[in-house]
């Protein structure tokens, strides 16, 4: 670096003083502003705990992930410091800032708890995306120079230059064009006063299309005929004429890089909000719900008030139709049953004799603009080809999309606004629709949502318990998980990850299974899943491993033993009590057998190679009878005894720590070691049963 590029200490202090002054005056935004709001505090707390679901919910609510708390800690710093790898990955994917050569960036890197998180920060180059709206703005700007396919529907003339523009963008971004086009939606040409220089109008149009401010005012069409002062005066007139309040400020701020970047970010965010408001008021508001057999009969004129040039059709599912029919039936006063089983409601002869007709399936038609649909590679190829859908007709073409109306509305919302807020219940449907339409960013957002909100409580039961786990099972944290279907189908998610080659979903499913393996290991569908994973390898050899099983084993190690190995507790236990086993070993191990040890040297109870079926959910009494059959002694048998303090021994039964097969363990460390070996043995037995070697 040359000497002229190095600032002196007084210059640095002056620069910092001026920056603080601009921040205090509100002209410049701080990268990591102080945030004392309750939602931000909840986000920071979720990052400390590693609660993926809560983090995703707060990000969806719009909480600033780049804020800082009272201790100058950002959510990314807290997640990195506490060692929550998945939370760090989620924050980076969501646009958390961790820039090079900044105090907060270096602090985040050096505070990383382990090398895995540090390597993740380096892999993401500290920050994956500082402007998540950049792809949206880039597409809008690219419409000005796109020649094929041609999507413009109005030609605006300024002097000798003609600009091919799009009515819906002009109407959404400029109040002037909104009024003019609302009065004359069929207009295909517009002529501006000859006194306005074309370079000035070009700068205004680039501003409307979310482009960068011109660095040289005398650039562009016809620039050589006007001086810089005349062009700037024309820009001022264009800003007043088209009601573009931020245009002049954008030109003036082009000399300061930081102000330019901040102004650019604010203008893009403002433009996105304007597009969203226009989308809600015109596209969503004018969607048509019609019987499915009459959907193709709709005739929508090309000269319409919302400037749509194509119709997208989505049909309701049969299940949705049946649910709506049931709701309609109960609301119409037909027979219902009270709590005592006596029919109540209307008893008219007509309602009793007339059979309930099944309502017809509905279709929903969404008006849309091809210029925005080009963000999808599917539509881009369709409109660039010689397909029928690419031809211009008197009435709008109807293009059927293989998804539900709710999913299609989410897809259109993303294409028009870059927003993708949808519930977990339809996340898989959105994933398949994004894959069908080749929208990679939406597919990534759906995968992130599934892998974060789908995790839920990591110790809860899965959505598909086996036949032997119908009863509520005690989880690792000591809480009891209630039975019931979860929102997600983990089997469908894993198959979707395989089909679409989404590594994030494959890892999520393996981790999901590992933390709930006792509820899935005896499920025939889980065995079928393992078999499908093995069959994914063509020309499989005996030495080939099974990817799903390997991943589950890895996350099992993380679930039971990784935290103990990192903390060194297992070494301390082995050094302080080298000959002490757990309580289960003292009561269950025969005197002529030698204790077994795991890979860390801990003494663990001997586990049977073939645990009896359904042993994971056996009641304590059943476990005791099984141990009596094996020759083991049961410590607590017979009526409860009264202790000196007057309490029954049965009051302490809840404090007894038991393993998955019902045996007693001395502490949680011993229980985890035994459960880990049990689940590994069950996996080996499953592979043996399937005839697979892994």
From TrEMBL:
<dbReference type="InterPro" id="IPR036770">
    <property type="entry name" value="Ankyrin_rpt-contain_sf"/>
</dbReference>
<dbReference type="InterPro" id="IPR044515">
    <property type="entry name" value="ABTB1"/>
</dbReference>
<keyword id="KW-0677">Repeat</keyword>
<feature type="repeat" description="ANK">
    <location>
        <begin position="71"/>
        <end position="96"/>
    </location>
</feature>
<protein>
    <submittedName>
        <fullName>BTB/POZ domain-containing protein Btb3</fullName>
    </submittedName>
</protein>
<feature type="compositionally biased region" description="Polar residues">
    <location>
        <begin position="645"/>
        <end position="657"/>
    </location>
</feature>
<dbReference type="InterPro" id="IPR002110">
    <property type="entry name" value="Ankyrin_rpt"/>
</dbReference>
<feature type="region of interest" description="Disordered">
    <location>
        <begin position="572"/>
        <end position="666"/>
    </location>
</feature>
<feature type="compositionally biased region" description="Polar residues">
    <location>
        <begin position="460"/>
        <end position="476"/>
    </location>
</feature>
<feature type="domain" description="BTB">
    <location>
        <begin position="152"/>
        <end position="217"/>
    </location>
</feature>
<dbReference type="GO" id="GO:0000151">
    <property type="term" value="C:ubiquitin ligase complex"/>
</dbReference>
<keyword id="KW-0040">ANK repeat</keyword>
<feature type="region of interest" description="Disordered">
    <location>
        <begin position="460"/>
        <end position="481"/>
    </location>
</feature>
<dbReference type="Pfam" id="PF00651">
    <property type="entry name" value="BTB"/>
</dbReference>
<feature type="domain" description="BTB">
    <location>
        <begin position="352"/>
        <end position="424"/>
    </location>
</feature>
<feature type="compositionally biased region" description="Polar residues">
    <location>
        <begin position="616"/>
        <end position="628"/>
    </location>
</feature>
<dbReference type="Pfam" id="PF12796">
    <property type="entry name" value="Ank_2"/>
</dbReference>
<feature type="region of interest" description="Disordered">
    <location>
        <begin position="317"/>
        <end position="338"/>
    </location>
</feature>
<dbReference type="GO" id="GO:0005737">
    <property type="term" value="C:cytoplasm"/>
</dbReference>
<dbReference type="InterPro" id="IPR000210">
    <property type="entry name" value="BTB/POZ_dom"/>
</dbReference>
<dbReference type="InterPro" id="IPR011333">
    <property type="entry name" value="SKP1/BTB/POZ_sf"/>
</dbReference>
<feature type="compositionally biased region" description="Low complexity">
    <location>
        <begin position="585"/>
        <end position="600"/>
    </location>
</feature>
